[in-house]
Amino acid sequence: MESKIGNPKKSMTGLGRGLGALLSDSGNTPSETPTIPRRLEAISSMHEVLIESVETNPYQPRTHFDQEALQELAESIKVLGIIQPITVKESSPGKYTLISGERRLQASKLAGLTKIPAYIRTADDQQMLEMALIENIQRENLNAIEIALSYHRLLSEFQLKQEELGDRVGKNRTTVNNYLRLLKLPDVIQAAVRDNEISMGHARALINIDNHETQIKLFSKVVEENWSVRKIEDEVRRLALLIQEDNKGKRQTSIKQEISSLQFRLQGYFGTKVLVKADEKHKGEIKIPFSSKDELDRILNSIKVNQE
């Protein structure tokens, strides 16, 4: 809930830890400063700026805003005002680009405000994306797909490595990779994660199935029957075993076919019965039985083995 600021030049205390320390005035103690190795230089303290002078953040990681929740925030702002300033950078004299706080900005417009308190910062494109991403992650406002897309943008557009990205957002490499893997899922499943139809746990289980068609069929069951994460994990393991057994059966069938073909060719070559045995590693033996010395001589002659 937002509440009104009495004096916009006073230090704000409602920002909390983490990003609050990043965005608030420079009087914070060292313990409140997050370990983000980027230069963030303030041009001024908090000001009130015209809402119409603020452009939305082109690097905003959030792609979905709950309109009902936005309207509720607007009603709250009408009554209590805004407790936490937005953060902007000055794009030109009197014009600003939003870095973080788009919900507050949009709700303020709905509430009919003409001005909004804002911290003005200098930031390049990467810093803008990082700051918007970190704020939303720390507030737990982003869904898993939005986080994954933001991570992907930081990696692809700014050539960050996963370890560097982890340092930026305070996550280890495994966590970052788990989010990025969600982007390999079919669009219908990504949309379900985005819209909170299924959890990230459900989605992570589905990732372990290689076939998209099977993923979608299983996803449909998850939604229709309201499966738990444990149930889908068990089902994925069962399917994996079936696939493994099926592949093993196919390999064995292939080996049998190879052996049968080889045995047929050898029998034609030697003009007698030939037995071929082999395992999956192609280890085995070839037996050429004979019933007389003449038959042995004929076999030896066919492979040009001279007898003494």
TrEMBL record:
SUPFAM superfamilies attached here? Answer: KorB DNA-binding domain-like (SSF109709), ParB/Sulfiredoxin (SSF110849)
InterPro entries in alphabetical order: Chromosome_partition/occlusion, HTH_ParB/Spo0J, ParB/RepB/Spo0J, ParB/Sulfiredoxin_sf, ParB_dimer_C, ParB_N
Kindly give the Pfam families that the UniProt entry links to this protein. Answer: HTH_ParB, ParB_C, ParB_N
User: What residue stretch is flagged as signal peptide?
Assistant: none
Q: What's one GO MF term for it?
A: DNA binding
- Ranges for domain ParB-like N-terminal come to 47-137
Keyword DNA-binding appears in the UniProt entry: yes
**What is the recorded name of this protein?**
ParB/RepB/Spo0J family partition protein
Family affiliation = Belongs to the ParB family.
GO BP annotations listed: chromosome segregation; positive regulation of sporulation resulting in formation of a cellular spore
Say if the entry is tagged with keyword Transcription: no
Q: Which PANTHER family match?
A: CHROMOSOME-PARTITIONING PROTEIN PARB-RELATED
Species whose genome carries this gene: Emticicia agri
Where is this chain compositionally biased, Polar residues type? Answer: 25-34
Q: Where is this region: Disordered?
A: 1-34
Alphabetized UniProt keyword annotations: Chromosome partition, DNA-binding
- Cellular component GO terms, alphabetical: chromosome
